[in-house]
């Protein structure tokens, strides 16, 4: 049976509430890395998943403005979490990758977030959590596809969580 308009609106309003609460939480969360704004964390996640990537590809993946991502990348380079190098396929462009310090910082960030969310989900059972994550991914994929179909965004690079990256590597091995 298809989702009703009322049910769809309930999902939308629930997600809107969660989005606003996450923004509020981000603004009050302790800084784990000096000089790194929490809004730049997704940049680190994308670079970690891609290995070496152009700023424009990061922006595409995050559905964000290139100038915003460029500023975030510059800030992350200045604190030593990312490094820039010439793009081997086009020397006029540059690519970014994580430094060793960036990998360490990313590990701390992910561990801190995981601990926080583990506390928020303390009453959840593992199977229902897995089902929720699966449906959340499906919703994200549907929204992403809808944006691309409407020309609102070019095709992104994969944006995977560390768990998804680990699962993908296991499938490939």
From TrEMBL:
Domain HTH marR-type intervals: 8-141
Keyword set, alphabetical order: DNA-binding, Transcription, Transcription regulation
Chain residue ranges for the region called Disordered: 146-173
PROSITE patterns noted in UniProt: HTH_MARR_1, HTH_MARR_2
SUPFAM superfamilies according to UniProt: Winged helix' DNA-binding domain
Pfam families associated with the record: MarR_2
Protein's name in the database: MarR family winged helix-turn-helix transcriptional regulator
Organism: Terrabacter terrigena
Lineage: Bacteria, Bacillati, Actinomycetota, Actinomycetes, Micrococcales
């Amino acid at each position: 049976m298809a989702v009703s308009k009322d049910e769809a609106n309930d999902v939308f309003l629930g997600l809107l509430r969660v989005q606003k609460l996450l923004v509020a939480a981000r603004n009050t969360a302790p800084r784990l890395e000096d000089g790194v704004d929490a809004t730049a964390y997704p940049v680190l996640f994308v670079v970690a998943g891609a290995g070496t990537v152009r700023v424009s590809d990061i922006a595409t993946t995050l559905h964000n403005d290139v100038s915003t991502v460029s500023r975030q990348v510059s800030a992350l380079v200045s604190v030593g979490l990312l490094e820039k190098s010439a793009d081997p396929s086009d020397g006029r462009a540059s690519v970014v990758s994580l430094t060793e310090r960036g990998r360490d910082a990313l590990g701390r960030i992910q561990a801190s977030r995981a601990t926080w969310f583990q506390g928020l989900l303390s009453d959840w059972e593992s199977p229902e959590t897995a089902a929720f994550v699966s449906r959340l991914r499906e919703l994200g994929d549907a929204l992403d596809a809808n944006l691309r179909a409407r020309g609102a965004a070019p095709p992104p690079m994969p944006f995977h969580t560390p768990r998804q990256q680990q699962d993908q590597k296991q499938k490939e091995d």
